[in-house]
Specification:
heterodimer; A: alpha+beta; Beta-lactamase; 2 domains; five-stranded antiparallel sheet; 21 helices; B: mainly alpha; 5 helices; 73% helix; transmembrane helix (chain B)
Amino acid sequence: MAVTAEDLAPTISLDGVRKARGNLTQARIRWMILALVIGFGAVGGRLVQLGMVETDTTIEGQARDAITATRPPILDRNGLEMAVDIRVPSLFAEPRRIIDVDEAVTKLRTVLPNLDEAWLRNRLSGDRGFVWVQRELTPAIEEQIMRLGIPGIDFITESKRFYPGMNEAAHILGSTNVDNQGISGIERHMDRESIALLQELGLARGNKLTPVELSVDMRVQHVMHDQLLDAMTRYQAIAAAGAIMDIYTGEIIALASLPDFNPNDPASALVKDTFNRVTSGIFEPGSIFKTVTLAGALDAGAVRITDDFDARYGVRFGRYTISDFHGKNRILSLPEVYKYSSNIGTIRIMQAMGKDNFREFLSRMKFDERVEFELPEMRVPSVPKSLSEVGAATASFGHGLSVSPLHMLTAYAAFVNGGNYISPTLYKRSIAEAEPFYERVLQPQTSAYMRYLMRLNAISVGGSGSQMNKLAQGYRVGGKTGTAEKVVDGRYSSSKVTNFFASAFPLDNPRYAMVIMVDEPKAENPQSGTTAGWNAGALTGRVVQRVAPMLGIAPDFGELLDQQIVPPEVRRIFPEGY
Amino acid sequence: MIRRLNFFLIVTSIAMLVGVYMLKFSIEGTASERSAMTAHIAEQESELSTLKADWAVLNQPGYVEPIVRRHQAELAVEQVKQEQFGSFADLPMRPAEPDTSAMDALFQAIDAGIDPIDAILELEGIE
């Protein structure tokens, strides 16, 4: 029994009570620890999970940052702002937080009555996190809407581009869209260049961007724009355009084209006919192209400046005869061919050069490619690949080919700057910076001849630039008129013309070249005509009269400066020089 | 002993609790101050941008010219003409300064009774 009792081991059971209790406690502690570990594990895991979550800061597919991204201010060459960023409030809604859509719609429409009710209700209902209601409002409206106290409606400050010059430099600046991206003009070019990259890298935030300095002089630009506007009413033209370029640096000092648009209201750029006529309009240049023909022939040595050309009879090509507009019907010397704008004389000069050499010269002057320029609005000129006899003859006086006024401007700049072709630019640069881009197209001697011929056309009796010179007395301007007849119903019309005046000043030591275009002008009064001298020429004179002092050119009424540029060989035929 | 320790610990923990809460509230206060300041700066920056834009508008030649034209009559201003420009080179040379010391000597001589003209006249035998 005892053995049995011993076998049952009651002492063990006694011992077991403590032990069992101890075991239980230990087990409970273990469970507790496990529970705590699981609990903390859950908390920790959730923390990690929360840390991994990427908060969605995009606004309708765009990073919130991109909306407040800024663009660098654009300054003119004297530091005057041409484009700045302003901060404007934009109204957005969080539909999932709006409690009473109907109330919100009615209240919002008290401040913004132009919003469509159905559209707004549709916009505000639903479970979306972010919707734009209206962008780019004024601080006054922001205040009023905040006062309404609608939940789920708030403002975000956006950067908006503002152009203080309004229409004046519209075609240079272009415009930006509501997301502050450049859509035309230099704004577009800037985006392509660097800003897009900066914004992508997240650097273009805040106001720390270096301003962009343009070559444009706003004062000159204003005068150009003002005078073009004046010309539009004065001559009842359908369009007018003009540009001034520094012949040594290639900087564009002013560039305007009418009709234009207000870059602050980009939609106005969509109106028909507001395209930039200087860069993206191509026209038959008319007689201003004679300068090119003469320069090419003189440079090739095919003709000398003292040569005579028979302009007594028209030039016959099969059934066609090309004759002069104001025919002198006599033998003309080369300076007279230029002065009287003789088509016959110019054809003879081109023929002396040979049509293939002439075509080659056009390529050298880059007339068959786009001008290298910053503005994206450019058109390829239309110049025939090879010229027939007739084609070459008409091309010599600027018909049968179409180029942009910018082509003519760069060509004229090269003619008077000593014979170096320099691509125009809208960014400020010095002569030293421009020199590496020079491309020699004419000998310096030819350039000297061209200066003389252009000045001759302005001051000599019967020259087509005399109207211009009368207005810009003292500033030694010289240039060539061009009256290009427009093609109406397949034939050249004498009533619809595009008029040009290409010029350079001051010709004793030229610095600026200018091209002015007036499209379909009418006579200002019954005494005046519709040829280029009356409108494009006079307009050039008025522009120079106002801008020359701004550009630091002092007037000089003495004859000495004009006499200095007369080539000695010309004195043999015109002893007095002009 | 243990009771004292407990009491001490309770007091410390209450003090710590109060301290931590005070810190929390002060930080919250600072944070809201900071966000208010950021909002204020943003507001002023946007005001500044508008003012700058205003300034740029007022400086535009296209804005100034109509004002000038409007007041042309009262101010008697006119567009500058070529003839109105001049240069330093165009100015005539300054006339030679009068020889003041010689003049003084002459006047003194006359005062002293010696007239240099007399001598010449006598020489010519006019008097």
